[in-house]
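Q: For a teaching handout, I want to show students what a protein-ligand complex looks like in token form. Below are the inputs, and the small molecule is iron/sulfur cluster. Please produce the holo structure.
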Amino acid sequence: MRELIPISLVSEYVFCARSAWLAYVAGVFEPNEFTVEGEILHRRVHSKGSGKRTGKRQWRKVPVYSRRLGVVGYADLVEEIEGQFFPVEYKRGKARLRLSDQVQLCLQGMCLEEMLHCPIETGYIYYASSRRRLEVDLTGPLRRLTRKAIHEVRELVQQDKPPPAILSPKCRGCAQRSACMPDMPNVERFSWEEWLA
Ligand code: SF4
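A: Here is the structure, written as tokens, with iron/sulfur cluster included.
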């Protein structure tokens, strides 16, 4: 059987392939203010408990998997309204749809489809600072991109060194920055093979 890959790894890969390799192959992770804030948010969301409120049923921290896709993870929240199910992902910060977050939500939706045997075409991302939920279409282009990302991640984890660093604004909040050293021109001379051995 194929190895199941975490949904969070696919999402991280879409954020930055090098970051995904450093975190999941080399095991590098240095918490920073952003990751701690995210962790606290998720603990708060998961501790609220499941139940029924204002016409909808809610379940929190729901384990999800897909044998077909070979992925596993969990959804922060799953809601059911009149027989339809919607995954909801919680994010720190202001309302801004990032592709990596949409792929994470799409994977949760695809897993739930397989588990519940019903179509799931819409999900939501809640942004804590803005206190807003943005709707995400889980069909069409996003679904194609998500499938492609899973395939690419399977190739990434077989590599014995990370993809090259590409310095960009997202490096600022990256938990792999000190290992990645995106602003060092000679960083690729470092031997990851020796370091991992
Ligand atoms: S610092 Fe930048 S290039 Fe390096 S892993 Fe993070 S996001 Fe990727």
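A: Two things your students might notice: Residues 16, 18-19, 22, 165-166, 170-171, 174, 176-177, 180, 182 surround iron/sulfur cluster (CB under 6 Å). The domain at 5-25+37-196 is CATH 3.90.320.10 (Lambda Exonuclease; Chain A).
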